[in-house]
Specification:
Number of helices: 12
Order of helices and strands: HHEEHHHHHHHHHH
Largest sheet: 2 strands, antiparallel
Structural class: mainly alpha
CATH class: Mainly Alpha
Helix content: over 70%
Strand order of the largest sheet: 1-2
Radius of gyration: 23 Å
Length: 292
């Protein structure tokens, strides 16, 4: 009887903790909305999201350049890092020896724990000069190097350790019996990986990509250092851009004397919150359909 009461109390406590997590998300959304409401009431959400002019001193707050910059950098980072991460994880989980696995795991942990500002410095010293002095001239383009491409490369490198580590764990979680059954039927090692391991791991792969995109959407310092921070809609990967997190980080200290400016930055934070929430919700729906 006493153990039953303890289990019941523990269940209530865990339920309360879960409810607190939900309420925290709701409170965060409500707080951001209340702070952003002045500019929403004055100019309207559709006008703010579809205009391109950003002149806070004149009361013009067009968020389209920032949305485009955020999407461009994040999409480029995922497109560049996903194939490489998958191939690295397949090698580490299915082909590499124990020594290589231990060394690679330690190296990935170091890369994942590095401060984002170091990636920004690396991008400024290596990637930007390479784009400006080597890549752009070959393509017949003149650029300073502070571009969508630089932001995508830096951000892609930053999310590779996270994706590889999760992919390896997912691949290792595939039951050995399934692999042995495939090999026993005459399939090669690669065919087993392709038709058994990858298919069985598909929900986990999608969940990992969602987590990586969420991380990429919120990254600030590294991207801010290499993307150029110009409020324009980028027409190519060699144009500058201005992602939403960089907008908030660059301007938050300047808006204290301008209530409408403060409201605009809070709206930027709210948009970022909604993007991450909707993306994760959509991924959950896709995962349920795949698993059903």
């Amino acid at each position: 009887m006493q153990h039953y009461r303890k289990d019941k109390i523990a269940g209530y406590l865990f339920g309360l903790m879960a409810l607190c997590a939900v309420l925290l998300v709701v409170a965060l959304a409500i707080g951001l909305y209340l702070k952003a409401s002045p500019i929403l009431h004055e100019q309207g959400l559709w006008s703010l999201l579809t205009t391109t002019t950003w002149k806070p001193m004149k009361g013009q707050f067009g968020f389209l350049p920032f949305l485009a910059g955020t999407g461009a950098v994040t999409l480029l980072a995922v497109v560049m890092s996903l194939p490489l991460s998958l191939l690295m994880a397949i090698y580490l989980a299915e082909y590499a020896g124990k020594r290589v696995q231990k060394f690679s795991t330690a190296l990935l942990d170091i890369l994942a724990s590095l401060p984002s500002v170091l990636y920004g410095v690396w991008g400024s010293l290596i990637i930007i000069p390479w784009i400006a002095d080597t890549l752009a001239p070959k393509l017949g383009v003149t650029t300073s190097g502070y571009t969508v491409l630089a932001g995508g490369i830096v951000l892609g490198v930053m999310i590779i350790p996270l994706m590889v580590s999760l992919f390896v764990e997912i691949f290792r979680g595939v039951p050995t019996l399934l692999k042995e059954s495939s090999l026993a039927l005459g399939a090669t090692h690669w065919q087993t990986i392709k038709f058994v391991v990858l298919r069985k791991s598909l929900p986990g792969i999608i969940a990992t990509v969602v987590l990586a995109v969420s991380r990429a959407l919120g990254e600030t310092i590294a991207v801010m250092m290499v993307c150029g921070n110009l409020p324009i809609v980028p027409k190519s990967i060699l144009d500058a851009c201005y992602p939403l997190p960089a907008l908030i980080a660059n301007n938050y200290g300047e808006m204290m004397s301008m209530p409408l400016y403060e409201s605009a930055l809070m709206l930027a934070a709210l948009i970022l919150f909604v993007l991450v929430f909707v993306f994760n919700l959509g991924a959950r729906i896709v995962l349920k359909k795949i698993q059903s």
